[in-house]
Amino acid sequence: MSMINELPRIFCSAYEEYKKLNKGSFKTIMESGSEDKSALSSLLIWSDNRKSLPYLAQVGYAGKVQMIYADPPFFSKSDYKAALKIRCADGKNKNVKVHAYDDRWGNDISNYINEMVVQLFAMKELLKDDGVIVVHLDWHAVHYARLVMDEIFGADNFINEVIWSYKSGGSSSKRFARKHDNLLIYGKTPQYKFRAIKEKSYNRGFKPYRFKGVEEFQDEKGWYTIVNAKDVWEMDAVGRTSSERVGYATQKPEKLLKRLIEAFTDEGDIVCDMFSGSGTTAAAAVKSGRRWVCGDKNPMSIAMSLSRIAGHDSSYKVIKEEDAASGIGEISAAYENGVLRLTGYTPATVEDVDSDSLKIVNETAVNSPRDLITYVSLDTDSDGKIHKNRYDMGSAEGRMPEEISVQALKGNKIHILAADVFGNFSEREIEI
To answer: pLDDT digits over 227-257, tens only?
Structure first.
């Protein structure tokens, strides 16, 4: 049976599933910064969306999110791996490949569309009346997304289909190279918030027009005017040599998210991304002065997100659905004269890696264990309850140091919360 005939049945079935969603049971595992009790806090959520989205709606975020960025699986029928860089004993970086996410859906597009509809209805609940949603897809399923989003958000609330054009990716002798993604943008209502982004528009032949009343400029390329940005964005993807690269499959560039955030939100607004992946949205939101709610069911994504927002002056909580689990590593540390030394780390069993990758992990654990650590947070006055992040650092900006200068009063307890590159978490408490 053709999909055009199947769509109404899939849509109705998915809507019934959405109405029966139940929020998960969550616990706070970390608080960072001085929380403003009068405002909804930024959140990093470790959970499946079917539990975290209804939870958010019921604890106060319904109708409070200004922009949702959704970068879900694309129905590529692939199983994605992250290529994580680990420094080896010889001083060289080597890639260890580990499972990131499965985008196969039983090779059945109806399964994919069903989940898309369920989650889009749940996301719509969170949007403010002047909010927008951006769904990031490509040629595999964007045509189906356009149909179901017209139904859920209303065809009249369609704003743009932005084409993100990039250079990376493969080519084929059988077709034009597929080197763009599609960003479908809808408002919850016709009264959405928007700020036009400006860009250069080069004159024909790069020569001056000298039209009356038209201001022109010149750079090394030629003459140009300043215009409102068009709906085709030429922007580099996160390449192999990019300083942003954290190794997560299908990582998106911060520049892309910053442009969307600038266009559709103001400082202090809430930006939401429940397919957090490599943590790009949280990183872009923090740097743009926005609050954020980001989530993922993969603990590796949670670790990467923490690594990328570490050291920034922001207030947020990290919460975890009770059923969410990861491996538990074992970290060793010592504190003396205001210096915390990471003396050792034993990772949890790393699954779904080949023998060569496992050899690299084991050698690194022996010779340079801190190079497996991607994030460290210190609570310098632990009460044994919720970890209060008073100092943190991540390896996203470079190698994790062996020694950390941090002050703690005699008689206090330092609680260490650490994550490794695979998303395994570990804790250690030291008495001063």
So the answer is: 999 999 999 998 877 888 888 888 999 999 9
User: CA angle, 352 as apex, 347 and 353 as ends, to 5°?
Assistant: 75
The DSSP secondary-structure symbol of 141 reads: T
Tokens matching residue 387: 């970890």
Distance of CA 391 to the CA centre of its chain: 22
Distance CA(108)–CA(369), nearest Å, equals 43
Pairing of strands 217-218, 373-379: unpaired
User: Which phi and psi angles does 307 have, rounded to 5°?
Assistant: -60, -35
User: How far is the C-alpha of 386 from the C-alpha of 268, rounded, in Å?
Assistant: 26
Helix ranges restricted to H, 241-367: 254-264, 280-287, 299-309, 355-367
Question: From residue 18, how far is each of 103, 136, 155 by CA, in Å?
Answer: 21, 21, 21
pLDDT tens digit string along 337-396? 889 988 888 888 777 777 777 888 888 888 888 888 999 999 999 998 999 999 999 986
In angstroms, the CA 63 to CA 317 distance is: 20
| Domains in the chain: ranges and CATH | 3-194+230-321 (3.40.50.150), 330-431 (2.60.40)
Q: Write the Ramachandran bin of 86: left for phi over 0, alpha for psi from -120 to 50, otherwise beta.
A: beta
